[in-house]
DNA sequence: ATGAAAGCGCTAACAT
DNA sequence: ATGTTAGCGCTTTCAT
């Protein structure tokens, strides 16, 4: 029961060759139905299990896709992963998932590890820290499909899946302006990542177009955890101009900010209006409900999976670097209404 | 640059044997320092990368740990996964993660797939649907380490990591009773899973101990999504006894229920008090803040990782089935206060 | 300290 | 339709 049976065992048992066994197991067309049946039965009886190590070595492929994300435990990211997993799983691929924890070093290490472990493709959402992209060359050099999603970088022949972050940032800010906000600040993190840089650009663009005495002001936070919200409040309290609008690059932080604001005596949206980003589930359950940009994470994950699978199956020309831009949407709730 | 170099290439290049190259690369003690240095240099120059397929086949191990969870996109689960990943990554292990989506069939399939892909160990949190556990025998038969966390089942020689769910359910309910609740209902899902069954048992025990005319009543929901909250409200509205306390097996659902309650004119906690489960971040940002049971997900993940690694390294007797019970804690916030 | 060679188990090109 | 056989690249026992 515990001794593992190989195709050689099956071959001997049935008096046929290992090749025939292998072919039968793989449903090769040129094997007779009766032989296949015999083999399958023997396999079941003996508890035969394919040895992927050997199979992978022979085929030089692993049916495995690597994924590197900044962190697993964010609502958005785990939703994207869920989408990727669903697609991969249905196609018979396994997912090897690792976290960079926003560190360039860890991202490098994970890239190397995943390469060596022989993943057939790699999906990456970049760490905030990452400034250099040479570590991905082991993939690009060997033409192993590499795709970036959400936190992307433009590399030759690497598809990207994003939303139009600049437009989203613009809309969020424009909305606040239309609600009468005069002094709108932007709260973000990792401004060297294009996602955040572009939202910031959209914010600035909106301010500029509605020329008056608006002052552009971005508060950079280290991450989207509760203590960072305090920094924002401190700024607001000491600002010479009365802040009346906040566009935050993350719902989770926006929510903490609102909480902090309220416990500091500010009324949301009366005194200060807030727009977040992502449309995390939390946006709908807090008081006041949070206006935000809907960012379709599950769909992004599914598309990332599908895109990489079609590259793997060769149904898309791998030389064609594509860029998929998903639709986003401003959702107006209570937190930003006049 | 694109042609892959093997240990044979290095051996030829340096005029030594492949065995020596292999040993050098693995820092084998009986290789001279100079030879090692030569090899490492040549490896670097040629861009040599180990081929794990071959290595795995030879060693019959993959440095990979499989994980099956009900779903990736829950705050609790992604936090646990984050803990597992951190430990595994530091120990040089990769994580293959898959979702059962609460379906027994998918769990079976994933178990088989992960087995065949040669994971060195398997970590599982069971699907709600799963009633039969034979699919895990491929692991237990071959003494491949198998560990259950959160949603566990008692299998021979399989460690489990849990909290004392019965005590937690008891405390939550007892607390509501002490706050003056007379008609407390319990909302849960997947009552055939011990996690939920035990919380329910704790709930019943608390009611029984505080003998009076309390009626035990459990509302089973299909999952913890918003629409399910409506079912709960419907029950409350039509109940002959005025419901004044709710113990919910999940913060995410508790939060939706509170929202529904409020929009139906109920005051929380004045009319109805609510206690959730897990201490998701959302518990602290909603209004009123949610009382809940703190369930240390990250710690659970780290422990699961550590436990399985020590089994793998043989530093723990694999025959010793251990059960780790993590501390939980009732956190009293506004939603349940008199 | 190093080398020779036999696996590890599967696949596929090339027979038959 | 089936068999033969040469890899796939690394590890490791057994020499030397």
Commentary on this structure:
With 338 residues, chain A is an alpha/beta fold. Chain A folds into three domains: 7-50, lambda repressor-like DNA-binding domains (434 Repressor (Amino-terminal Domain)), CATH 1.10.260.40; 64-162 and 297-326, Response regulator (Rossmann fold, 3-Layer(aba) Sandwich); 165-295 and 330-336, Response regulator (Rossmann fold), CATH 3.40.50.2300. In chain A, 43% of the residues lie in helices and 15% in strands. Chain A contains twelve helices and twelve strands. Chain A has helices at residues 7-14, 18-25, 33-46, 52-59, 75-90, 104-116, 137-141, 165-178, 194-209, 226-238, 251-263, 297-312, and strands at 64-69, 94-99, 121-124, 146-149, 160-163, 184-189, 218-221, 245-248, 273-275, 292-294, 323-326, 329-331. In chain A, the strands form three sheets. A six-stranded parallel sheet of chain A has the order 2-1-3-4-5-11, with helices on both faces. Chain A has a four-stranded parallel sheet with strand order 7-6-8-9, with helices on both faces. In chain A, strands 10-12 form a two-stranded antiparallel ribbon. In chain A, α1 crosses α2 and α5 runs parallel beside α12. The radius of gyration of chain A is 26 Å and the shape is elongated. The termini of chain A are far apart. The model of chain A has no long low-confidence stretch (mean pLDDT 94). The interface between A and B is large, with 61 and 61 residues. The first copy, chain A, binds a DNA duplex (16 and 16 nucleotides) through α2 and α4.
